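step: validate -> pass
step: tokenize input -> pass
step: predict -> running
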Amino acid sequence: PLSFKEFLNFKELKFDLEQVKYSSNEKARLINSFDEYLRFGGLPEIVLSEETRRFEIAQSYYQTVIRREIIERYKIRNEEALKALLLLLLNSTHYSLTKLYNTLKSMQYEVGKATIQNFINYIESSYLMFSVPIFSYKIKNQQQYPKKVYFIDNVFISSVSTKFTKNQGRLYENLVAVNLIKRFEGIYYWKNSLDEEVDFVIKDNQKVKQLIQVCCNVDEIDTKQREIRALLKASKELKCKSLLIITENYEAEEEKEWFGIKGTVKFIPLWKWLLEEHLKNAIKKSV
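step: predict -> pass
step: emit ->
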């Protein structure tokens, strides 16, 4: 899929970030473009299509990938179980083989855990979906704990999923995951015994480079404190000081403390983070 910057280029839209900072009209124009990208994704044909046809095209892509890249390629006989599994994954944020097995069994699908794992491998090999494991220095833990699930373009969540069509938080997190997976090999999530979670742990050269939370609405005090608390606890455990919360529109840098654990937390809107990441990549490639 196109990056947000490439999406803007496809739409022949140009923005000066300095001008956006001081012009409410320019910022509103950029936010409108971002909202479109967030919902309909960055697949080129869909980007250039009329809005009324975008979901239709996305569903056609989805069905084609299932048929050609998975069912025909791997000669799958239990097609209905595969399709049911995909829908479960589209409507989930985490999955485990045991939970998927029990759910499919309750839906009267006769499919074993080994087959489910094979199906997931096939889906990932088609580049439709990818999984993010829990961060642990023990490989056994990475295998045993639930994995987080993301799809390669938001339009599949918007057009096929029944649960997340209006869940902005899900779309935000998926878009962040897609951009991270393009840049880093080591992407994980963190969770402790109290079920406090950090959405993304970025590992580079055997070192934890950054901890990222995705939280649209940090205006709610309880939500903001919960996200910060998890970041600070993970920061202490993983010895990482680069703490980021990706938001809808809040931007700041704040010094935070939780029972003696201190850290500087940066807040940045997703649209701005996407454009800044694109700029970093362009600079890196030119060096």
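step: describe -> The first strand starts at residue 94 and ends at 95.
step: cleanup -> pass
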